[in-house]
Amino acid sequence: MRRRHNTKVKIIAAVLVACFSASYFFGWKDDVMRKIVYPLQYDYMVRQYAYENHIDPALVAAVILVESKFDQSASSHRGASGLMQIMPQTGKWIAEKMGMENFQPAQLNDVQTNIRMGTWYLAYLLKEYDGNKVLALAAYNAGRGHVDSWMEEYGWDKNFEKVEEIPFTETREYVRIVLLNERQYKKLYNF
């Protein structure tokens, strides 16, 4: 009888050790994912402006990761700048719509201004396309003009979800990666 009891105790101990080890590993894995693969710098600003604009902060973080990898000095060969890679002309248009006076394109290099404007613009696109993330993200990347012309040319409506049908390879991959990143940010940061 004592032998059976010892065997049960050993099995329970082994199960507990396995559970502890697994939870430690998965907790450690999430820490590595947060620090290396899915960082979240400027957390407070991302959350603040996402909430002010009624959009998911995980989506904002996902866009920033793809656009600049949280590098505040990022700039593109086309002239986009800052964390959310806003083009100067788009920045001027956003500033007008937001009621910002005396906007200068150099302001796009300021972290807070860039997140504030980029988040506002992302929210604007989501409203423009009735909450459709695929269309809003495609417009963020390729421009509203392209998305509107694709909708007309291919007969897409605002329920469009077929990422693989986006004609620009760069935009198609952009949308896929942002949506994947959004899911990871939700999981890792409890948005």
Topology:
Layout (H helix, E strand, L loop, with lengths): L1 H36 L5 H10 L4 H12 L19 H11 L12 H18 L4 H10 L1 H11 L14 H21 L2
Helix pairs in contact: 2-5, 3-8, 5-6, 6-7, 6-8
Describe the structure.
The protein is an all-alpha fold. Helix content is about 70%, strand content about 0%. Helix 6 packs across helix 7. The protein is globular.
Supply database-style keywords.
mainly alpha, 8 helices, 191 residues
Dominant shape: globular
As a whole number of angstroms, the C-alpha radius of gyration is 22 Å
Rounded to the nearest angstrom, the distance between the terminal CA atoms is: 52 Å
Oligomeric organization of the protein chains: single chain
What's the pLDDT, averaged over the residues? 89
| Unreliable segments of 5+ consecutive residues | 18-25
Brief summary:
With 191 residues, the protein is an all-alpha fold.
